[in-house]
Amino acid sequence: MGIKPEAVNRDSSGYWVHSQYPNWEEGTTEKEINAWCKDNNVTFHAVWFEYDAPDMAQHNYYDLGHDSCVGWEPSPPVPGAFCFSIHDTEDGPVALFLAPVNQGNEISN
């Protein structure tokens, strides 16, 4: 696998992006992401803040309007997965994980 885990050094709002994160934009299709994953021998997994973050972090983000996901430590979705990004979206924060294909993981999001 060409992409390796990196130390996750989150900014003051709790966000971080891997140095090899592609220039995916809002219009990037699932087909394009899946092709990139296949080329890099990894599977792609999304962990959403609204389903994974502690109540206090969700309260701060959704109810108090803080643009921050501080207090959330995203749960790796499968064994061997590593963090690829923690970023904000129009649907709230999301953590993207990659896992080597040899871990027996299927592509999901």
Poorly predicted residue ranges:
103-109
Mean pLDDT: 91
Distance between the termini: 20 Å
Helix content: 10-25%
Biggest beta sheet summary: 4 strands, antiparallel
Q: Element order, helices and strands?
A: EHEHHEE
**Radius of gyration computed on alpha carbons:** 14 Å
What is the strand arrangement across the widest sheet? 1-3-4-2
Oligomeric nature of the chains: single chain
Quickly give the structural class.
alpha+beta
In total, how many beta strands? 4
How many helix segments?
A: 3
Strand content: 15-25%
Backbone shape: globular
- What is the domain tally? 1
Structural features, described:
With 109 residues, this protein is α+β, with helices and mostly antiparallel strands. The chain has one domain. It is 21% helix and 20% strand. A four-stranded antiparallel sheet has the order 1-3-4-2. The longest helix is centred in the first third of the chain and has 10 residues. It is globular, with a radius of gyration of 14 Å. It starts with 15 loop residues before the first strand and ends in a 9-residue tail after the last strand. The C terminus is likely disordered.
